[in-house]
Structure formats: structure tokens, C-alpha cells
Design goal:
This protein is an alpha+beta fold. It has one domain (6-154): Alpha-Beta Plaits, CATH 3.30.70.100. It is built from 7 helices and 4 strands. The chain has a 4-stranded antiparallel beta sheet with strand order 2-3-1-4, with helices on both faces. The longest helix is centred in the N-terminal third of the chain and has 16 residues, at 26-41. The relative contact order is 0.22. The model has no long low-confidence stretch (mean pLDDT 91).
């Protein structure tokens, strides 16, 4: 259940199979602006780490993401789970999600985490990666969770 006075933060990440300028990931790269603009116009969207800042944090070898040049990720905040779900499953994002195996390595491994943030809080990538590693090490909890946990918690109203 969503705590009062909180929004939903999410981090999704993956490693591209090829470099960003490789023709095999061109469809993904060419669609990023479209997908991000749809997210930003979606009902319930609050904030997203912009492309330049994301690129910088993804490629910093001393940063929380380890500096992999093929890292592709999104860090965003949404008013609630329903808003994020609508964007993910009912917009152009779903078409890209369905093609993830073409572009990403290890699509069945953990690539996504959500957690609650106080309204007005902008999460850092360091915070997001802490939540990601917590979910990986401990499984779903109020600290860090995936879709199944979030939906089960929402159903207990």
C-alpha cells in the first residue's frame, strides 16, 4: 500500500548487447526520445533523470553503476503505481519492452526496482542502486520491490 505523502520511484537498467552506435540497437536508440516524451506527458509522471545526467552517471567508472558504456537505464518518479503501470503496459513503451531481448543482455535477470519516496524527493542514482542491490540480496520488501509485491500490496486496500 502506498504510504501517505509518498510517490513511487523506479529504476530499470540493462546492458545493451551492442554499443550505442551499433546498427542492431538503432531501433532502441531511435525510440528513446519518443518513449521518454510519452512518459513525461503521462498522467502521474513526476520526474525523470534527464539523458545527459543519466549518460554521465552510467559511464562514470567510479559511479554507482560501474561505468559500463553499454548501460541503458531510467530513473523516474511517479505519483502512484497505477500511473507507472499505465505508462509501462499501455503506451508505446510496451512495444519497446516486448523487443527487449533484441537489444539487452540477460533480460531474465533482475533489471527493475521500485520504492516509495516522500513527495518532493528526487532520488539519486546512488540511492537507486542501493535499492536495486537490496532487492537483489533480500527480495521484495517495503524497502525495495518489484511488480508482484507492489500489486499484492495495492490489492490489500
Amino acid at each position: 500500500m502506498q504510504p501517505e505523502g509518498h510517490h513511487l520511484a523506479e529504476l530499470n537498467l540493462g546492458i545493451l548487447k551492442h554499443d550505442w552506435d551499433h546498427p542492431r540497437v538503432k531501433g532502441f536508440v531511435d525510440g528513446l526520445d519518443l518513449v521518454n516524451s510519452v512518459a513525461q506527458r503521462s498522467s502521474g509522471f513526476v520526474w525523470m533523470l534527464d539523458g545527459d545526467a543519466m549518460d554521465k552517471v552510467q559511464t562514470d567508472p567510479q559511479g554507482p553503476m560501474g561505468g559500463n558504456p553499454r548501460m541503458a537505464s531510467t530513473l523516474s518518479v511517479w505519483e502512484d503505481l497505477a500511473s507507472l503501470e499505465h505508462f509501462v503496459w499501455n503506451t508505446v513503451h510496451k512495444r519497446f519492452y516486448d523487443r527487449r531481448a533484441e537489444w539487452y543482455d540477460a533480460v531474465e535477470s533482475l533489471r527493475f526496482v521500485m520504492w516509495w519516496v516522500p513527495v518532493g524527493h528526487t532520488p539519486s542514482m546512488a540511492e537507486a542502486m542501493e535499492r536495486f542491490h537490496h532487492l537483489d540480496a533480500h527480495g521484495d520488501s517495503p524497502t525495495a520491490f518489484g511488480w508482484d509485491y507492489a500489486n499484492a500490496a495495492n490489492d490489500v486496500r
